[in-house]
Known about the structure:
Layout (H helix, E strand, L loop, with lengths): L4 E5 L3 E6 L18 H9 L4 E2 L8 E7 L2 H10 L6 E9 L6 E4 L2 E2 L5 E2 L2 E9 L3 E8 L6 H8 L13 H11 L6 E9 L6 E5 L4 H10 L3 H10 L1
Parallel strand pairs: 4-11
Antiparallel strand pairs: 1-2, 2-4, 3-4, 5-10, 5-11, 6-9, 7-8, 9-10, 11-12
Amino acid sequence: MNEVKILYKDEFVVAVDKPSGLLVHPYWKETNEKDSLMARVRDLIGQKVYPLHRLDRPVSGIVLFGLSGEVVKNLQLHWHFANTKKEYITLCRNHITEPGEWNFPLKNDKDVEQKAKTLYWPLAQFEDTTLCRVQIKTGRKHQIRRHFARRMFNIIGDTHKGNGPMNRKFREEYDLQRIFLHAWKLEIEHPETEELLKLTCPLPPELATVLEKLGLSMEELQRKLSES
Length: 228
């Protein structure tokens, strides 16, 4: 499994690039699994860390940790501020031609509906897929995957809500062995300085390679992100 890379660190927080396939922290249902992002970051920096949020196991990208419980409490307050941005890059099936939003509820594990809002901007269209920048205004379980799937724009590589034939095509033709969903940007007020902490994380090689095979270079992607 790929190594964990530190994106930012000071005396209060540390942000890392989570590789696909790694849990942020062990779940009680998976007690036999000892490897986790939290354990790796702890070993990497030599001190205990406290996760502010999670990414699903197959998703890669930015995860922010506090270096104390008090710092995380402050971050959790900032998490819901209007100037906090949580953005992803994803590849979905079918064509999305205009920016938009999905603002319909999703049920939690107790079958209770919760408000959920997802914004999206198409960056590039290919033969039968669209590359999108996505911003979530709420943090429901599998929110992006479920919102996109409900509108028939299934995320490529999603084994739960995805489209089987499309997933197989990308495994066989593009060697994509994971979901195409990456947390590329996080902006949040720093818990101590209250300045806006702006973090970005490039696509991992396995996703960048897919786009390059589709005809989109990383330089062109950066240009599209800056213009969207």
